[in-house]
Design a protein that fits this description.
The chain has 155 residues and is mainly beta. 12% of the residues lie in helices and 32% in strands.
Length: 155
């Protein structure tokens, strides 16, 4: 048998990181129309940005577009975030840039680091200072001590 169900909203498959980030973009666009007051506004915020009220944002940050920052996150001074999801309890240290990436629960990204090109950090990933991660997919509970200059899976 084949069944169908009509949804009163939007549905998409977000099983791949790039699709998850596309879904975030579409969701935040929808929020801008229907719940604009829920989105962050102010100095350093551009485009659609969702920030949990318990998150702490440092001075001189540039955040957006298409960013979601979850509960209990600590974002250091001078951080640049764009097109990314920062999950619960993440710490991003000063002067780090995160673009097109997903940072998993309880992870820590060191100072002066750069993550881009669909990086995905699993839960509790610890990245040392001054690292470059390009398309790295890091499994949970790992410590990253060296840069990952080309896309790779870190087991």
């Amino acid at each position: 048998m084949l069944y169908a169900y009509t949804l009163n909203g939007y549905w998409m498959d977000v099983g791949q990181p790039k699709d998850y980030l596309k879904g975030l973009h579409l969701y935040l666009d929808s929020m801008a129309i229907r719940q604009a007051a829920s989105l962050a506004h102010g100095p350093g915020i551009s485009g659609n940005v969702l920030v949990d009220p318990t998150a702490k944002i440092g001075e001189g940050c540039l955040i957006g577009p298409d960013v979601s920052i979850s509960a209990g996150c600590v974002i250091g001074n001078g951080v640049r975030l764009s097109h990314c999801v920062i999950m619960r309890g993440v710490q991003i240290k000063d002067h780090t840039k995160v673009d097109l990436s997903i940072i998993g629960w309880g992870s820590r990204v060191g100072t002066w680091s750069r993550l881009e090109n669909h990086c995905v950090l699993g839960e509790d990933v610890q990245c040392k200072d001054e690292l470059y991660l390009n398309g790295a997919v890091v499994l949970p509970h790992k410590e990253i001590k060296d840069s990952v200059p080309s896309p790779a899976i870190i087991l």
